[in-house]
Amino acid sequence: MVIEGLLYTKDHEWARIDADVATIGITDYAQQMLGELVFVELPRIGKQCAGGDELAVVESTKAANDIFAPVAGKVIEVNDELESQPELVNQDCYNAGWICKLQITDVKSVESLMDSKQYEEYLAGR
Amino acid sequence: MPFISNTPAQREQMLAEIGLSMDELFDDIPPHLKAGEFDLPRGLSEQETRNRLMELAQKNATHLTCFLGGGFYDHFIPAAVDAIVSRSEFYTAYTPYQPELSQGVLQAIYEFQSMICRLTEMEVANASLYDGGTALYEAMMMALRITGRNKVIVDDSVNPIYRVMIHSYTQNLKIELDQTHCQDGLANHDRILQMIDDKTAAVIVQNPNFFGCIDEFSDIADAAHDKGALLIVSTYPLSLGILKTPAAMGADIVTGEGQSLGIPMSFGGPYLGFMASAKRYVRKMPGRIVGETLDASARKAYVLTLQAREQHIRRDKATSNICSNEALCALTALVYLSLLGKEGLKETAQLCADKANYAYKRLTAIPGVVPHFRGKWFFNEFVLDLPCEAADVIAKLIEKRFAAGFPLGRYYDGMENSILISVTEKRTKQEIGMLAEALESVL
């Protein structure tokens, strides 16, 4: 499942851009591949990152994976709910399962992201 | 695994293939670290070898009456400990690669973790680390990961060997290690409280400290927590039978050397590091952790848990390079604690403290022997000042078959005349009296 209106990375993160704030999560494809999540290591608020930097870690019963920042920015909010309910990412990855919000510091970094159509094509090509 | 040697001809061939000389191949190793020439004697027959080794072994001063502590202690080990631990089911089992196949080993480790938690009153413990020093270093690294900061305060009343280890491990890392100088036998609380700031990841202290004195760290815990820093306490597990626990003082991570729990003293180990922490930090904790769960048929089962922290899954981002543990030593500690029980542990700790107090009175009655720290509580170890260099006195007492103590001048400037004396439940009133007489005779 791919949602229209969101932007995507090749590492299967999504970003919802609202003015200069990007809400970040992992895609339905990513959560399916990882399987049941048991832990999400959230970034520290205030953390600065360039596009592609390590942002968070998601851990499932079979693997642990890094989540990379889709855009350059500063972490302004994290989804605390995931601390006790990491399964929200599996259940509702595009809404309740969001991971954090970035204040975008480099607008250009948004341009390299795929739209939903491009991401669907990317998935089809895998 | 067989040792496959390579001949000089093969080496030449390999070097020719990559186009390097032997010196160029090992260019990255600093010259002073390269192996020199070994002047090895001609080979000996089995019998000659045995005789030679026996001859060397006889040079060891064994069967000394031991008043030496400083992190390792001469406690009584019930014969049942060895008998149980030596069972081949335990003795031969390394952490298996299909760990859940070995439910017995996992259950033993789980119970070890539970006992460490009960001793320290912390919420979670791992399956053990190499020794007290590596455990303390790992606790420090854990605090750096938790806080994302890089400043650590260590008081020099922490075991100097542990401090040397921490220094060795961290000298090439970007860590600011600040040392405070103990004050009158206790950690330098005033200085530590001043130094804690919002860059501090952790404060490292020890109880009882290296001088045997009993400290209380609630003030440091509060100050650290105010600034978002952690309190790491290294402790002597047997003392926890009667002392206030690190958890009760507000410690976030507790480590220690488990040798006092049924493991014999031996040069170089193997020893047992343990680590316990608050549950919220468990994912930042290094080492293996065994958890209890239910299997598909709802039967109690034990599993290695939280493995995603470990290097076989997280690779270079693992919490530590230590994914191993001292399973057999941990089992030994578990068996020892099980045999003693809660009351037995309390009694043993109380005996240590009582006998140490008796020895303190007896030894300070000798003319010229005075306590270094006056009016301080101690557990089973204390510091005395002698009228001459402690190292000389200790050497003379070895002749009289006493390991009388540790010469503090080895690690502390200005303490050349100070000796650290430890007394365990094994020491008798008669032995203490004999040490006093021997000490008086050599002064």
Give the secondary structure arrangement, pairings included.
The complex is a heterodimer of chains A (126) and B (443).
Chain A: E1 7-8, E2 13-18, E3 21-26, H1 28-34, E4 37-41, E5 48-49, E6 54-60, E7 64-68, E8 73-78, H2 81-84, H3 88-91, E9 100-104, H4 108-111, H5 116-124
Antiparallel strand pairs in A: 1-2, 2-3, 3-9, 4-6, 5-8, 6-7, 8-9
Chain B: H1 8-18, H2 22-25, H3 46-57, E1 65-66, H4 79-85, H5 88-91, H6 103-120, E2 124-125, H7 132-147, E3 151-155, H8 160-170, E4 176-180, H9 189-195, E5 200-207, H10 218-226, E6 230-235, E7 253-257, E8 273-277, E9 289-294, E10 300-305, H11 311-314, H12 327-364, E11 370-371, E12 381-385, H13 390-399, E13 402-403, E14 406-407, E15 418-422, H14 429-442
Parallel strand pairs in B: 1-13, 3-4, 3-5, 5-6, 6-7
Antiparallel strand pairs in B: 2-8, 7-8, 9-10, 11-12, 12-15, 14-15
Helix pairs in contact in B: 4-12, 6-12, 7-8, 12-14
Describe the model:
- The complex is a heterodimer of chains A (126) and B (443).
- With 126 residues, chain A is α+β, with helices and mostly antiparallel strands.
- Chain A has one domain (7-116): OB fold (Dihydrolipoamide Acetyltransferase, E2P), CATH 2.40.50.100.
- Chain A is 22% helix and 35% strand.
- The longest helix of chain A has 9 residues, at 116-124.
- The mean pLDDT of chain A is 93.
- Chain B is an alpha/beta fold and 443 residues long.
- Chain B contains 14 helices and 15 strands.
- In chain B, strands 2-8-7-6-5-3-4 form a 7-stranded mixed sheet, with helices on both faces. A 4-stranded antiparallel sheet of chain B has the order 11-12-15-14, with helices on one face. Chain B has a two-stranded parallel ribbon with strand order 1-13.
- In chain B, strand 5 (200-207), helix 10 and strand 6 (230-235) form a beta-alpha-beta unit.
- In chain B, helix 4 runs antiparallel to helix 12, helix 6 packs parallel to helix 12 (327-364) and helix 7 crosses helix 8 (160-170).
- The longest helix of chain B has 38 residues, at 327-364.
- The radius of gyration of chain B is 24 Å and the shape is globular.
- The model of chain B has no long low-confidence stretch (mean pLDDT 93).
- The A-B interface holds A 38-39, 41, 44, 57, 59, 63-64, 66 and B 148, 283, 308, 313-314, 317.
